Amino acid sequence: MTHKKEFLFKRILLTNDDGYDAPGLQVLEKIASELADEIWVVAPVQDQSGTSHSISIHNPLRAFPKGDRRFAVNGTPGDCVIMGVRGLMPEAPDLILSGVNRGGNLGIETVFSGTVGAAMTGALLSIPSIALSQNFIDGQPIYWETSQKYGSQVIKDLEKMHWYQKGSCLNINFPACSPDHVQSIEFTAQGKGFMDKVDTIKKLDPKSNPYYWFHFNRPQKEDDLGTETNAINNHRIAISPLCFERTNWGLLDQLKLKK
User: Fold this and answer.
1) Which residues lie below 8 Å from residue 48, measured CB to CB, with a gap of 6+?
2) Does residue 49 fall inside a structural domain?
3) Is 67 helix (H, G, I), strand (E, B) or coil?
4) Distances from the Cα of 26 to the Cαs of 61, 72, 137, 198, in angstroms?
5) I want to staple 129 with a disulfide (CB 3.0 to 4.6 A). Which of 68, 76, 87, 169 is the partner?
6) Contact present, 110 and 148 (Cβ < 8 Å)
7) 212: buried, middle or exposed (CB in 10 Å: 19+, 13-18, 0-12)?
8) CA 153 – CA 219 distance, rounded (Å)
9) Is residue 241 part of a domain?
């Protein structure tokens, strides 16, 4: 007698910011296949890195069918989440997973991250949402097998902790090492991350008109104990709870005193 496999979730929505054809989305599907029987994929047509949780309010969106429960959307990761939950799925998902991003989303870079932005949009819709990113070091291989090996088990363990709080999401970063070299899992604060500064690079087109690229400088550096970067640097999986509250309470108190 064949027994049907029991899953932790009934329905999961997957998205990313690297685009529909990104290798990390394939890894995410393998992770989700261990968690739910019904998996929906709604991802951007092209790379949307750096779009944070922006949504399109001035341009119409199109959802291009790519197969059963699969769509590519000409919009941002935030658009994809809203399209999936409110426009394409007959019922809301039990969980939203965003990623697996090609590169870490650490520290202040989470403000720009479309991967984290998609998870934050899910939180805005009151759906448990998790961003997943695979850190790598320039010039070295990307260890997709690390996030693939640990991703589903980490989410299963988190579910046992009843982690979800309204208005919050989780940001998971996997270290740039092989699965056998992962040391542990650490619950972390956001910290500063690797981003040092942003430069503009000026170039000229064939008609001598200027155009510009942004260049992010990300030197490998240390951060305080208990932060994402410190955990990643020490081959640990970093899990940070994020929310929309960004008030600088110390400065607020200072301004009130000077009023």
Assistant:
1) 17, 18, 19, 75, 76, 77, 114
2) yes
3) strand
4) 24, 14, 21, 30
5) 169
6) no
7) exposed
8) 31
9) yes
Q: Taking all residues of the chain, what is their mean pLDDT, rounded to a whole number?
A: 94
Tens digits of residue pLDDT in 15-45:
999 999 999 999 999 999 999 999 999 999 9
Residues 6+ apart with CB under 8 A from 97: 12, 13, 14, 15, 28, 31, 32, 129, 130, 132, 155
Contact 96, 218 (CB under 8 A): no
pLDDT tens-digit series, residues 85-116: 999 999 999 999 999 999 999 998 999 999 99
CB-neighbour burial class of residue 254 (10 A; exposed 0-12, middle 13-18, buried 19+): exposed
**Residue 1 within a domain:** no
Residue 254 lies in a domain: yes
Q: How many structural domains are present in the chain?
A: 1
Q: Which contiguous run of DSSP H or E holds residue 73?
A: strand 70-73
Predicted structure pTM score: 0.93
- Domain of residue 145 covers 9-193+222-258
DSSP, collapsed to helix, strand or coil, labels residue 98 as strand
At residue 251, what is the residue type?
Answer: L
How sure is the predictor about 214, in pLDDT bands with cuts at 50, 70 and 90? confident
Return the pLDDT at 259.
78
